[in-house]
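Look over this today:
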Amino acid sequence: MADLLELRGVSFAYGKNEVLKNISFSANAGEYLSLLGVNGSGKTTLLGLLAGFIRPNSGEIRLLGKSLRRIGFRDRARLIAVVTQSAELSFPFSCLEIVLMGLNPHMGRFQSVSDEQLEAARQIMEGCDVWRFADKPITEISGGERQRVLLARALLQSPKLLLLDEAMSELDVAAKCAMMKLLRARVEQEQLCVIAVHHDLSTAYRYSDRVCALKNGEIYADGPPSSVMDESFFQSVFSVNAEIIEHKGFIINDNI
């Protein structure tokens, strides 16, 4: 099967500051890929390129075999959903209204929400444990609750590719586990492709099919967590010492 997403020699710079250098990798439907690396390594910039918010200085990004820059904004919105850590939500839309905005790429200008679509929104919001906030203004819930509402909106959008930029950062432990299990189910049952920036290395290790680590704007390592995240990985990428516990994970002996 052809790759859902493919990057070929992608480089990007802000002015004279080269952030990403000759990045090449692919991702498939039904795969959870975590992007790892220290602050400033280029992770968020890479997500911006994958979303089409910015264009590479060189190289090419292809989605479903087509150059991303040749896919129009509306078509791109049908294929790609993005959840960021710090979305601006200053207008007091209800949480249900926010989630229903995920339908916009699939609807005509004056088309109203159907009963079936409303039921789909309810089910997704219940899965994200935010249906109880349906009538509550988005401005009156906590940061973690807001992130779950935005994740529900992205899932209702029915994308092929879901991009997450520290989208779980404000969730407590139980909520983060619940959301990761929900995403894993979508990946496995609906062949969703997720590419996520994680600073929580334990989450990346436990739930990812692959991890791709960036260092100085280049790919340092790419592969299954259990084979990539060894002692030399932690030392080289994060400058910390780690003890690997076979079949269970790792323990960081120094603070990140």
User: Anything to note?
Assistant: The CA atoms of residues 147 and 244 lie 32 Å apart. The first strand starts at residue 5 and ends at 14. The chain has one domain: 5-91+159-252. The first helix runs from residue 43 to 51.
